[in-house]
């Protein structure tokens, strides 16, 4: 009976090295309190974006001019509480802050995915093949870095019109350089390693070597850059919305709410304070999680 149990359990243990690695990684990450705090903040923001319609009983676009600029904690005639007050058009501020998480995260995830994929491909090709391919891609990266992002965004959005999809494409296409340089640097060192040389000696083609041997080893630094870059993208989206180049009213965005609130900063401080705090907490949480992820995945650091 004992032999049967051992025979049943040993293969299962042998088949789960990946699971054990993930458990060990989670334990190392949990030891970093700042990273754990950042992960909790990011998780709460994502949950808020997915459940915004259930968290607030108010429509974020519904106007009530008679109850404009009400302070936090105000109750209307029906007895409904407005925890963060109302804005200059009588809209519930809490509902607008909650629904504002949706375009921020959507732009963050989508733009990072686009730029990350473009940078990954450019970095792999540039670092692995070198030569003329490397020269062309890196000169394109230099041109991209030399061109001011704000001017590019204004030109493209002015031509195509402000919308969520246009913002995602503009930010995604213009942010690939960082990923490309990080991946290229990693590939330059990996292509001279023994396991890559052994794969070539066994007859593996370039595509197989890139996918099977190099890509898994450059994914970790790429993931760290993507995590930290998401915070920057959210700030950029808020800045474009602040300038009127983002998602257009009446759809709520944190940047547009800041732009509306700056006019009433001396008489209705809550209009700009709470959207600003939402940006601050979200970006801080992502940065703390990204820093912890980088330190945890770096084998040279001891936890």
Q: What is the element layout, followed by pairings?
A:
Elements: H1 2-14, H2 17-31, H3 33-50, H4 52-55, E1 74-75, E2 81-82, H5 93-129, H6 131-146, H7 149-160, H8 164-174, H9 176-190, H10 194-201, H11 206-242, H12 254-261, H13 270-297
Antiparallel strand pairs: 1-2
Helix pairs in contact: 3-5, 3-13, 5-6, 5-8, 5-9, 5-11, 5-13, 6-9, 7-8, 9-11, 10-11, 11-12, 11-13, 12-13
Attribute tags:
303 residues, mainly alpha, MetI-like fold, two-stranded antiparallel ribbon, 2 strands, 73% helix, elongated, disordered N terminus
Q: What does it look like?
A:
The protein has 303 residues and is an all-alpha fold. It has one domain: MetI-like (MetI-like fold, Orthogonal Bundle), CATH 1.10.3720. 73% of the residues lie in helices and 1% in strands. The chain is built from 13 helices and 2 strands, in the order ααααββααααααααα. Strands 1-2 form a two-stranded antiparallel ribbon. The longest helix is centred in the middle third of the chain and has 37 residues, at 93-129. The protein is elongated and about 80 Å long. The chain starts with a helix and ends in a 6-residue tail after the last helix.
């Amino acid at each position: 009976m004992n032999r049967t149990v051992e025979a049943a359990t040993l293969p299962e243990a042998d088949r789960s090295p990946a699971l054990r690695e993930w458990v060990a990684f989670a334990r190392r990450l949990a030891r970093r309190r700042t990273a754990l705090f950042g992960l909790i903040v990011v998780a709460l923001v994502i949950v808020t974006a997915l459940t915004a319609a259930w968290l607030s009983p108010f429509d974020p676009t519904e106007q009530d001019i008679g109850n404009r600029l009400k302070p936090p904690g105000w109750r209307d005639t029906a007895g409904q509480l407005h925890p963060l007050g109302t804005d200059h058009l009588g809209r519930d501020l809490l509902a607008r802050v909650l629904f504002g998480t949706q375009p921020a995260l959507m732009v963050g995830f989508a733009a990072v995915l686009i730029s990350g994929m473009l940078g990954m491909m450019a970095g792999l090709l540039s670092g692995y093949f070198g030569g003329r391919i490397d020269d062309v891609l890196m000169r394109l990266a230099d041109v991209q870095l030399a061109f001011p992002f704000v001017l590019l965004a204004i030109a493209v959005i002015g031509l195509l019109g402000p919308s969520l999809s246009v913002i995602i494409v503009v930010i995604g296409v213009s942010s690939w350089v960082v990923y490309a340089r990080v991946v290229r640097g990693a590939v330059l060192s990996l292509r001279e390693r023994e396991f890559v040389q052994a794969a070539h000696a066994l007859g593996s083609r370039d595509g197989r070597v890139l996918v099977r041997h190099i890509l898994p080893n450059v994914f970790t630094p790429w993931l760290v850059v993507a995590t930290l870059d998401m915070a920057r993208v959210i700030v950029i989206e808020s800045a474009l919305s602040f300038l009127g180049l983002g998602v257009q009213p009446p759809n709520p965005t944190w940047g547009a709410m800041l732009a509306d609130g700056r006019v009433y900063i001396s008489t209705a401080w809550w209009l700009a304070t709470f959207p600003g705090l939402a940006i601050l907490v979200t970006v801080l949480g992502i940065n703390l999680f990204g820093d912890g992820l980088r330190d945890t995945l770096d084998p040279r650091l001891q936890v």
